[in-house]
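Bumping my old thread because nobody answered last time. Still need a sequence for this structure:
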């Protein structure tokens, strides 16, 4: 049976924490917003769409997309220098490719995500990158997963897996009727991830190996 693995990006395959936090602080300064929170407050929201992050951090709904525009303008310039593959990520991708078809499902902008993955020399392993601009409803809604599977022309949901580091990934997988593995190398807490999946591992390579072992049974 054909195997499909969908990967989240931030906290699952890449670490762009510094790029994200510095860009949020840049937007607050440029937009003259008196941010009362901390870097940890920003970090706790990574994985959510940018507009949701800004709203949670106190930005008014009427101007939130102005902040998103300022963010994107700077993030694209600095992201490659301040982002790196997580430990075991490249090995996970290369091993997964030996037995499964791969795509990315992220709340990041898909265009910038593709540029990052090309910069890291792993984009050629993935068939599609479904980003925030490609859907009406981002994760935890199942739409990004459904759209990705449609692009991959996948009909059977029996051997499809989502690997992610937050509950957004796992909730989306559950809603889409596919399997999931939570990884502890990112931003989600183990006790939270356990509420949504039976499979929790330390990193994406362990996740891929688990999927291979289960699929071979």
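Sorry it took so long. Here it is:
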């Amino acid at each position: 049976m054909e195997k499909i693995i969908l990967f989240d990006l931030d906290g699952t395959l890449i670490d762009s924490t510094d790029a994200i936090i510095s860009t949020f602080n840049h937007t607050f300064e440029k937009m003259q917003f008196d941010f009362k929170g901390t870097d940890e407050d920003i970090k706790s929201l990574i994985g959510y769409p940018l507009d949701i992050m800004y709203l949670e951090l106190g930005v008014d709904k009427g101007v939130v997309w102005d902040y998103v525009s300022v963010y994107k303008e700077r993030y694209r310039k600095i992201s490659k220098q301040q982002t790196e593959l997580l430990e075991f990520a490249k090995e996970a991708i290369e091993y997964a490719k030996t037995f499964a078809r791969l795509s990315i499902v992220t709340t990041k902008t898909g265009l910038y995500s593709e540029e990052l993955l090309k910069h890291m020399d792993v984009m050629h392993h993935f068939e599609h990158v479904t980003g925030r601009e490609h859907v009406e409803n981002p994760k935890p809604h199942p739409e990004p997963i459904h759209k990705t599977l449609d692009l991959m022309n996948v009909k059977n949901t029996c051997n499809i897996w989502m690997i992610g580091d937050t509950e957004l990934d796992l909730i989306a997988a559950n809603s889409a009727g596919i399997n999931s593995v939570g990884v502890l190398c990112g931003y989600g807490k183990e006790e939270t991830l356990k509420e949504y999946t039976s499979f929790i591992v330390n990193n994406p390579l362990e996740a891929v190996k688990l999927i291979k072992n289960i699929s071979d049974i």
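The chain has a mean pLDDT of 95. Let me know if any region looks off to you.
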